[in-house]
Design a protein that fits this description.
Length: about 280
């Protein structure tokens, strides 16, 4: 059974996310533990964590993935910004452990004026400094579109991050980011080539999550603009190949698609489920 879901809101509390997911027809989901555009946030309390853990065991909404906020840059050359970023990730690890959640998804960071090599190493060093807070969590590095100095857009960079971080890590592949960073997945053959290249360089066993988004931007455009499934430049053939791929079909898939006059979440999941052949 495919695990397909959405990013859902925690605005009405952590205990409500299962209902929010079910209403959309999802059987897994992704959340922020707090407002993603704010530095000031609280760690999840032990009481809320315990209530959540009980419910999580009973509900068939699995996995629930935590996405970190948009602000941290673990490779920042500004020491204050870097400390804030490290502290923010540390708090996310504590919250994930209290909630009993296994995966924390992060965007690797931007190297800005320093070299990419230095930036990648900075990310790993920042993460290694909070190793004691990781607990049972697996950190997922999400691939990026590679605009500006943003790191993590190539399989080689993802491999470097995995190899130089001293605790359990894995990879999230976002289909929009894959496509706009130059990896074609718009048909079965192109997808096979991209998956086999990922396997050779990073290892498929490290792939823990797929962000399923179509793309407004063209192949290799470095643009990070999501589109409804099948309505973007990846198109229906690409998504049909992904959801029916022998290996990928067993990886949880989370959509971060828009909600607008064209479609909402329900329409996207129906469209996707109708393409599943196996
Ligand atoms: Zn994503
Ligand atoms: Zn994106």
């Amino acid at each position: 059974m495919h695990r397909i879901g959405f990013h859902v809101s925690v605005a009405q509390g952590f205990l409500n996310i299962f209902e929010n997911a079910k209403v959309l027809g999802a059987n897994c989901c992704q959340i922020f533990t707090h407002s993603p555009r704010s530095w000031a946030f609280n760690i999840v309390s032990e009481d809320v964590g315990n209530l959540f853990k009980d419910l999580y065991q009973k509900e068939d909404i699995k996995p629930v993935i935590v996405h970190d906020s948009y602000l941290p840059n673990l490779a920042s050359i500004d020491p204050i910004m870097k400390d804030k970023s490290i502290d923010s990730i540390k708090k996310e690890f504590i919250s994930c452990n209290r909630l009993g959640l296994e995966f924390l998804n992060i965007h690797p960071g931007a190297h800005k004026e320093q070299s990419k090599e230095k930036g990648l190493l900075e990310i790993c060093e920042s993460l290694n400094s909070v190793k004691d807070y990781v607990g049972k969590v697996t950190l997922l590095f999400e691939n990026t579109s590679g605009s500006g100095s943003v790191m993590g857009s190539t399989f080689e960079e993802l491999k470097f991050l995995l190899e130089n971080t001293d605790f359990n890590c894995g990879i999230t592949l976002d289909t929009c980011h894959l496509f706009t960073s130059g990896y074609d997945i718009s048909n079965r053959e192109a997808l096979e080539n991209t998956v086999s290249s990922f396997d050779k360089i990073v290892g498929l066993e490290n792939l823990k999550l797929i962000h399923l988004n179509d793309s407004q931007g063209e192949l290799n455009s470095k643009k990070d603009r999501h589109e409804h499934i099948g309505l973007g430049k990846i198109g229906p053939a690409g998504f049909k190949a992904i959801v029916n791929h022998d290996y990928l079909k067993n990886i949880p898939m989370i959509m971060e698609t828009p909600v607008n006059e064209k479609r909402g979440d329900k329409e996207n999941i129906i469209f996707l489920r109708e393409m599943i052949e196996i």
